[in-house]
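Hey team,

Filing this mostly as a record. A colleague (T.K.) asked me to run one chain through the structure pipeline before their review meeting, and I want the input and output archived in the tracker in case anyone asks later how it was produced. No errors, nothing strange. Just documentation.

Input sequence:
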Amino acid sequence: MRTTRTMFLSALATTAALAASGAVAGELDPPAGPVAPTMKDLVDVEPRQIIRNDFINITPIVIDSPGSYYLGEDILAIFGQHGIEIAAND
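Output structure:
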């Protein structure tokens, strides 16, 4: 019984000490103004252009300017022709 009473008094003293010390987690008021993004979009970091089929004319897709490209879908090609031709420098 004495042990239970000692544990209770110890817990009560700890709670009272924390309440008296004003345990603070930090500022709870957000800064004024709208929230702004802190990171760049992928478009800003690595601008890429999508490559897609032209279903009207099934001809090779020609890349004629340097840059970063990615496939947006499977590329269709005519047998014996290239699906993508690169005609850009660098």
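Quick notes for T.K.: The two ends are 84 Å apart (CA to CA). The mean pLDDT is 80.
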